[in-house]
Amino acid sequence: MAYSTNPNLPKARAIAMQLLIREKLPLQVVANRCGVHRSTVWRWKQKWEALNENVQLTNDNRPTRSAGNVFRQAALKWLVPTISSRPCTSPRAVAPYIVARVLELRAQLKRCAEVVWYHIARTDGLHVSLSSVRRILRRYHCFDGARKKRVRPDNPRRPHVTRPGELVETDTIHYICPLTKSRRYVYTVIDLYTRMAYVEIHPRILPGLAARVVLHARNEFGFDFHMVQADNGPEFSHYFEQVLRRNVMSTRHTRLGRPNDNAHIERFNRTVQEECLGSSISYKITTKHIQTKLDDYLEYYNFKRVHLSLQCKTPAEMLQGLEFSTLFSTYASSGSTRAKSPIIKLY
Fold first, then answer.
1. What's the topology of domain 168-317?
2. Which DSSP category does 285 fall into?
3. Which of 70, 73, 88, 303 has its CA 20 to 30 A from that of 208?
4. Contact by Cβ (8 Å): 102, 116
5. Where are the domains of the chain?
6. How many CB atoms lie within 10 A of CB 319?
7. Is the pTM of this model over 0.85?
8. How far apart are CA 154 and CA 268, in angstroms?
9. For the structural domain made of 1-56+72-86, what CATH number should be given?
10. Which of 16-20, 34-38, 263-267 has the highest mean pLDDT?
């Protein structure tokens, strides 16, 4: 790496050399104008001379002409670049023939670094570490073409949420019993506009179960889902998309390694863990008991727990206010002289 990352240093050196060479000012005067020590200007002059060692400032055919006139100074290079302080060699560097052999095996086998290292150590008998093989392959960009794309090519565009059901996020919380190592999975669904949430717990992780939870959430909320967003987990695979497509729902997936794309459902998962289930579930608690506990918490979350993002409203109040404004606009546009106040009954 360079000993200085200032991008204006080459220009400052050029100004100092022009003052010293063109205007022929004393070294101390140039140092005072540039704000550096005179030894620094002297080192800059050495680098400048090495940079322009092939430029001839004198004309041997006309010795009476003054050396270094304006015409010949036009060929000079004034910008003195910053030289990197990175060492050119290292006593512990991998030998060139080992690097060549690693690249050759990679081209032949088209396998990962572990397989290449195994063949080098067992077949060729060369002493090189696995980390060195990985570093060599990474330095020569051997993994760029095999890297999985972060965004699927058929992924639809994320909509700007303006109504309930336009974008719904779903995810799964994995619970492992610390004693028996048995697994249980909490499937969560949340609507981004109203923040209405739905939760189910199951002992298995399957695409069919994930799709069924989304359909149950749609029936529980009382409005249609237009797009469902999930991560790239195995429970949100091709069969999950097929089931939702048959129920007139489109699906989209988040980018690989970008959990912030599913920020709302990730925050709801943390809320469920902190306020309801905790960080682990014992094998002594039955799945039916946990589901009853989740149902009670959902009633509190959807009907009593206020949200700062909803201007301190509950999700039910957000949905009820939207339905009231929709029905009121329908009554007003019908031409009736008496606008009746509709009674909203949730669920």
1. Nucleotidyltransferase; domain 5 (3.30.420)
2. S
3. 303
4. yes
5. 1-56+72-86, 96-139, 168-317
6. 23
7. no
8. 27
9. 1.10.10
10. 263-267
